[in-house]
Every structure is written in structure tokens, then in C-alpha cells.
């Protein structure tokens, strides 16, 4: 069974959703038959490499709210992250453009290290406050994930794997993805947002049991999406 996961490295619910999905996978008796493939998605493709505004100012502007409201929102997200063992630090997070991080992830896929680099990038951004738009930082993180640092530098210095990033983004648009994380199980069932492990487990078991079917069925999706991402996903 293939599970495709659209996510972005600056989406706080993507890391939370990843953890909840992994908790479900740990409970799934056929987990060794599940292939997880990460897909690129850019919440803010026009984001600068080196942002001037901090995370709170960025959120306040994006959702047209006060700084106090933005800080309150991040405290709520941090509390959700804490529930799955993630210690978010919004004070240290550095808003940046994620295109190069996504290109590097596709390179990692060719080396069998997509899972490792994805985890390393998310941890670096949300827990360590690292600048994941910086080529120097990305090359170092690639090495820590088990990749050749010189090759990572070469990839980052080129436009290599940009077409794969674009392909993922276009595919997301075609199937109606407007926010991440977004999970597609077996090309049939879709789960939007950082749902509970029980929801993910239910879909894993359903897809395993079913041999036929067509269409994309949304499971556990909150159709009343709040502008403050309260449904557990980060919207465009």
C-alpha cells in the first residue's frame, strides 16, 4: 500500500500529522507493507529566503489578526505538538522559502533517504530554529540524514529536481488539495489535516481490506475550515 503525504516544512500541523500517522502505523499489523512517499507543497511559494518579519508578525498579517491573537494561536498549536512529543519554539522559527528544501528531498528520494531527510528538516525548523532556506544549513542537514554533503551542495547549486516539485504541486491542485498535511491512501482515500491516530488506522485497515473501488473519498475532514487553521491543517 502506498501512502502519499503532501506537506511543507514550515507547516506546524504537518509535523504533528506526521507523528499521529506514525502512531497509527505502529498499531497497523501490516505496517511493513506500507510505502510512505512525501510530496512537495508550498504554503507560500513567494516567501523570501531571508524574511524580515518574525513568525508572529507573519501570522498576524496572513490571517489579519492582532499580534496577541497570533501568539495565542501559536500557543494552541504548540500545545497540540506537545501532545505528540514535539516541543515547538515559535520564537526561534525562521520563515523562509522552502523550494530548495523540497528539491533536496527529491534528491534524497533517489538515495533512499527521503524519510530521514524529511524528519531532519522538520525537526530542524520546528524544534531547533534552524534556517532551512540556507544552502549551508540544508547541506549540513542532508549530511546528518545520511546523504553525501558534496552532492547535496551540487544539487542545491543547480535547478535539479525542480520539475519533480512542480509535478507534486500540480498533482495536488488536480485532486483539490488546498491545505496540508494531506494524506492519500492507496490512491483512493484522502485524509486532510492532523487527524487522530484512530482515523489514520481506520483508513489503513479499510484500504488493506478493499481490493476494488474508485474515486477519492475524504475521511475525517472538517468542512468548516477556520482561517486560524483550527481544523489541523495549514491552508494556502
TrEMBL record:
<dbReference type="GO" id="GO:0016491">
    <property type="term" value="F:oxidoreductase activity"/>
</dbReference>
<dbReference type="Pfam" id="PF01323">
    <property type="entry name" value="DSBA"/>
</dbReference>
<dbReference type="InterPro" id="IPR036249">
    <property type="entry name" value="Thioredoxin-like_sf"/>
</dbReference>
<dbReference type="InterPro" id="IPR001853">
    <property type="entry name" value="DSBA-like_thioredoxin_dom"/>
</dbReference>
<protein>
    <submittedName>
        <fullName>Disulfide bond formation protein DsbA</fullName>
    </submittedName>
</protein>
<feature type="domain" description="DSBA-like thioredoxin">
    <location>
        <begin position="3"/>
        <end position="204"/>
    </location>
</feature>
